[in-house]
């Protein structure tokens, strides 16, 4: 594998991945997001509070601790703002770094630097990958370590211990990256000792990380406490029982396919071009390392699909994992495409520029406008009527927006589903104690209000949307 790299010249192997990563980072940091997704704000709350127990989520252990350390460095440098913006910058740097690693991976397969750079920048400007690299989220960390895992696994002779550590890093980014294990095992299967070393090093790193998190952060008081922590998002039910968010159904397959048409941007045409070139790469990769890499990507994509067609198939962020492998296949497809070299270089580059321009104008810039964030705008508008000691009954995004952006105390309506009498008792006790209690618009349906005894209230803003409970 050293010959193609040497032929590419000294600039490309050593500097091109850094240039690609730097370009992606500059692009991401120049257009920060203002969507402020629920999980990102919740993580920022935990980071601001130094709440280590809630930073080590059972499904994605690594990001919260990394974010806490990163934010601590910002504070040492004099930053006095909220953690959310520091976490967004961290995600952008992680996503950009993964693009740089992809460029290095592709040159390691002997592809031309121009093809490698075009594919890596194509990854960076794909809609789902770009938008979720701007958010405070766990997935860019997993994407970076997936890229490192693939780059090591696609070597002519992978280093199994390092490969296991990279794969463990991906799984600490998000546990879903365990679905890349079949691809790695297939690449190593002719060398049983390497398979054992890879699996052992990955397992040892994971066990050490979870043991440290349990001992120093979570400190579970019982088996049930530990079980709920390890289940993570699968134990978000009111009684903390295990719940799989989906299942293998035709409807979920349709949802997964529908999401596949949106993940690139530029509508159905963009999806057709992306998947078509990936299919070409899978079919026509040259024998040897490229064909092995192509087949490993197909196995990896099938593994991720097996999981995410069942678990929330319409959730866009779970498709971030696909992009690393898809752009490897696309680059192989471009390389195998017959035609003049100038056309093979210019046409994909033009397509990536067009894709980036489309996603910038249609998705990224609107998403960076706080005025388009309706929950944020609503909270900031209504907060003018809330005294500093107010309690606010809320659901959905407002559960985290109210404490983070309005600095008021929320009452999560979700925990009272099916228990209107418990909510009525809680609100009556607060009201009787003289505590100001407000209810967000649309939180309690007419049916709920009727079951709660037609709670007496006054509208406190001109729109009549926000109301405050009368003292009982």
Mind sketching the topology for me?
Layout: H1 2-7, H2 11-30, H3 38-49, H4 52-55, H5 61-76, H6 83-108, H7 113-125, H8 127-132, H9 139-153, H10 160-173, H11 181-188, H12 192-218, H13 223-231, H14 250-260, H15 267-284, H16 289-308, H17 320-336, H18 341-367, H19 374-382, E1 391-394, H20 398-406, E2 409-412, H21 420-432, E3 437-439, H22 446-451, E4 457-459, E5 467-469
Parallel strand pairs: 1-2, 1-3
Antiparallel strand pairs: 3-5, 4-5
Task: State the gist of this model.
With 472 residues, the chain is mainly α. The chain has helices at residues 2-7, 11-30, 38-49, 52-55, 61-76, 83-108, 113-125, 127-132, 139-153, 160-173, 181-188, 192-218, 223-231, 250-260, 267-284, 289-308, 320-336, 341-367, 374-382, 398-406, 420-432, 446-451; strands at 391-394, 409-412, 437-439, 457-459, 467-469. 65% of the residues lie in helices and 4% in strands.
Give an overview of the whole structure:
The protein contains 22 helices and five strands. The protein is mainly α. The chain has two domains: 271 residues, no CATH class; 96 residues. It has a five-stranded mixed beta sheet with strand order 2-1-3-5-4, sandwiched between helices. Helix 20 links the parallel strand 1 and strand 2. The longest helix has 27 residues. It is globular, with a radius of gyration of 25 Å. The N terminus is likely disordered.
């Amino acid at each position: 594998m050293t010959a193609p790299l040497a032929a590419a010249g000294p600039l490309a192997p050593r500097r091109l991945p850094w240039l690609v990563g730097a370009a992606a980072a500059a692009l991401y940091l120049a257009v920060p997001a203002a969507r402020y997704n629920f999980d990102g704000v919740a993580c920022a709350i935990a980071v601001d509070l130094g709440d280590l127990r809630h930073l080590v989520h059972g499904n994605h252990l690594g990001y919260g601790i990394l974010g806490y350390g990163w934010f601590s460095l910002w504070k040492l440098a004099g930053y006095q703002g909220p953690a959310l913006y520091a976490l967004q910058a961290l995600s952008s740097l992680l996503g950009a770094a993964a693009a740089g690693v992809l460029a290095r991976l592709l040159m390691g397969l002997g592809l031309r630097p121009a093809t490698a750079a075009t594919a890596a920048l194509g990854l960076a400007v794909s809609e789902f990958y770009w938008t979720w690299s701007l958010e405070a989220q766990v997935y860019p960390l997993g994407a970076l370590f997936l890229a490192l895992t693939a780059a090591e696994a696609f070597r002519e002779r992978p280093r199994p211990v390092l490969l296991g550590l990279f794969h463990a890093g991906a799984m600490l980014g998000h546990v879903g990256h365990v679905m890349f294990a079949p691809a790695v095992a297939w690449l190593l299967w002719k060398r049983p000792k390497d398979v054992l070393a890879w699996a052992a090093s990955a397992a040892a790193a994971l066990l050490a990380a979870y043991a440290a998190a349990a001992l120093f952060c979570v400190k579970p008081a019982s088996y049930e406490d530990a079980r709920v922590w390890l289940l993570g998002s699968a134990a978000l039910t009111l009684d903390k029982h295990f719940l799989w968010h989906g299942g293998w159904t035709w409807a979920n397959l349709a949802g997964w396919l529908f999401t596949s048409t949106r993940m690139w941007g530029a509508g159905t045409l963009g999806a057709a071009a992306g998947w078509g070139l990936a299919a070409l790469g899978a079919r026509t990769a040259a024998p040897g390392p490229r064909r092995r890499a192509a087949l490993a990507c197909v196995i990896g994509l099938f593994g991720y699909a097996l999981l995410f067609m069942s678990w929330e198939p319409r959730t866009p962020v779970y498709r971030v994992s696909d992009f690393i492998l898809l752009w490897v296949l696309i680059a192989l497809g471009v390389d195998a495409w017959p035609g003049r070299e100038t056309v093979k270089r210019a046409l994909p580059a033009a397509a990536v520029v067009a894709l980036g321009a489309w996603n910038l104008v249609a998705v990224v810039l609107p998403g960076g406008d706080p005025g388009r964030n309706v929950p944020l705008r609503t909270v900031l508008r209504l907060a003018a009527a809330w005294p500093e000691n107010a309690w606010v009954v809320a659901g959905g995004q407002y559960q985290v927006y109210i404490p983070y952006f309005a600095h008021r105390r929320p009452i999560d309506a979700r925990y009272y589903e099916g228990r209107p009498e418990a909510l009525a008792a809680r609100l009556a006790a607060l009201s009787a104690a003289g505590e100001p209690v407000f209810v967000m618009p649309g939180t309690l349906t007419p049916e709920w209000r009727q079951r709660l005894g037609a709670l007496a209230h006054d509208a406190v803003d001109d729109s009549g949307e926000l109301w405050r409970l009368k003292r009982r």
